[in-house]
From TrEMBL:
Pfam families: ECH_1. GO terms for molecular function: catalytic activity. PANTHER family: ENOYL-COA HYDRATASE, IP11341P-RELATED. CDD domains: crotonase-like (cd06558). This is Enoyl-CoA hydratase. The lineage of its organism: Archaea, Methanobacteriati, Methanobacteriota, Stenosarchaea group, Halobacteria. Belongs to the enoyl-CoA hydratase/isomerase family. PROSITE patterns: ENOYL_COA_HYDRATASE.
Length: 231
């Protein structure tokens, strides 16, 4: 199941199947997408319950699939919803992230991990691979060399190696603190910064939009900018 808690400017979305290491069934994917899609908070923290972040797809469900392509597309839609959300989505990786769990984290805007985190794409060992957008996002984030070695080996990396590879941006004791601190920033700035850094259009269009976004923020916050200059 997916549990949602709204705490002021922060929404916490928790995958809550600890007995299955938070593995996701098709119904869970639908619920997760809805929890992200209807968020009003400027920042969303995605985390798992118990000793794992997310083990990816529930293999019992995968074994019974009549339409595996539809299931892959479903996972892709969830990842796209995370990436395209107007909220900043923070993956708080505490414990094991495997397969689809890694792919959902890759779709998040920020990935932080505790020292207990481990990450892996073990699908190659059972004749599968990451099909929730992982083949697109992984090389974009860690580079083609790391992406190939990580996916083709099926090995598990610890938190320190994940940081070195760029899979996560930093190691923290409690991901909640990171998300809560981010939610204290000016909300329109968060949204526009995400839009600009996520923009996949050509450079000229991105630069135009960047300048327009800066101008809009400047007009909205000119008094605060002047005050900061005087301090």
């Amino acid at each position: 199941m997916i549990r949602t808690t709204d705490d002021g400017d922060l929404r916490v979305v928790t995958i809550e199947r600890p007995e299955r290491r938070n593995a996701l069934r098709p119904t869970d994917l639908d619920d997760l997408r809805a929890a992200i899609d209807d968020a009003d908070a400027p920042v969303v923290l995605l985390r798992g319950s118990g000793p794992a972040f997310c083990a990816g797809a529930d293999l019992d469900s995968v074994a019974e699939l009549d339409d595996p392509e539809a299931f892959a597309r479903q996972g892709q839609r969830v990842a796209d919803t995370i990436e395209q959300s107007p909220s900043v989505v923070v993956a708080g990786i505490d414990g094991a992230a495997r397969g689809g769990g890694v792919e959902l984290a890759l779709a998040c805007d920020v990935r932080v991990a505790t020292p207990r985190a481990t990450l892996g794409e073990p699908g190659v060992r059972i004749g599968l691979f990451g099909a929730w957008g992982g083949t697109v996002r992984l090389p974009r984030i860690v580079g083609e060399g790391h992406a190939l070695e990580f996916s083709l080996s099926g090995r598990v990396v610890d938190a320190d190696e994940a940081l070195q590879m760029g899979l996560v941006s930093r190691l923290v004791d409690d991901p909640y603190d990171v998300a809560a601190s981010m939610a204290e920033n000016e909300h329109q700035s968060l949204r526009i910064i995400k839009e600009r850094l996520r923009d996949r259009s050509d450079d000229e269009a991105r630069l135009d939009a960047e300048a327009s976004g800066f101008a809009a923020l400047h007009r909205a916050n000119v008094d605060d900018i002047a005050t900061s200059r005087e301090e």
